[in-house]
């Protein structure tokens, strides 16, 4: 038996490690976030409940969102060993041009509510990281200001078809003049979904000062100070609104739109056209036949029709049906680099993430968005290496088994 003795300081000293004291609370908060779910927890603490729930929530019972997350959680990744992965390359081609990573920043509405830096913070990160970024029609920074903030970013404009077609034509013309590369036409919002968290929270644009929100301000004073002391919310596509999100969508958007209206879009927009919100193989064929340069399999993050198809489950069949004629992208439920890699292996050209970077934005503004991009990129690279894959084009169905 070994004899016990008290350690000498000379033996303990090499083991003592003190972290430098970080005085910047944002830097301290972000440095402790190692996953997107860590950023989500930080966002929940930083933002008012109604703002967090607007980002985090989905429609009705939120079944669609849970099913999408569950499928990502339960799939099996199947690695190949004894492969040279000393240099993993995450670059891919999207709409005929290179992208540094196989994910894009999806269009999100009312982004300056998450953090006062809003879309300008997102597009700056996109430019630095080589991530394409789609500005939403319902964004809270103008088309021109986003273009000025991110001159080096690949910028796309997301369009909802309005009842006022002249307004839609004006938006497309402004986006083209400002250098936006592609149009992302979202087709799954003929009417607003029933986002019950928003209803229960009394969420409105702009936030109303009620007894509830004033009480919440005491818990999130920094957010309210930022909102009230920075420029008033400016929408990319309209001057102002005073009401709920659902009322705004139902007031503006055209429920009569059909496939024939793509001809109108094409008559105005001469760049790449992406159709977002496709949820069946038949519709993927229809929009591809109509000339879509890419289709996005998406149920709007579970925020429209509850119990809608899970995009990842649909992906292999759509790739088989139209993948030789158009790019097939995927969103809904992506919260990790492993999720991104699984979608690529099943045939997606790229993926779109929304909540992931919004959690970062709420947690720490531009630095939080950058942290989200860093986390996803690192996870993509590590997952590819552990699968025995050095380049995105080497990923295939053999690397994923769906339950």
Automatic annotation (TrEMBL):
Keywords: Flavoprotein, FMN, Oxidoreductase. It holds the Pfam family FMN_dh. Transmembrane segments: none annotated. Glyoxylate binds at residues 54, 160, 195, 300, 303. The keyword Isomerase does not apply. InterPro entries: Aldolase_TIM, Alpha-hydoxy_acid_DH_FMN, FMN-dep_DH, FMN_HAD, FMN_hydac_DH_AS. Residues 28-403 form the FMN hydroxy acid dehydrogenase domain. Belongs to the FMN-dependent alpha-hydroxy acid dehydrogenase family. This is Lactate dehydrogenase. It comes from Actinotalea ferrariae CF5-4.
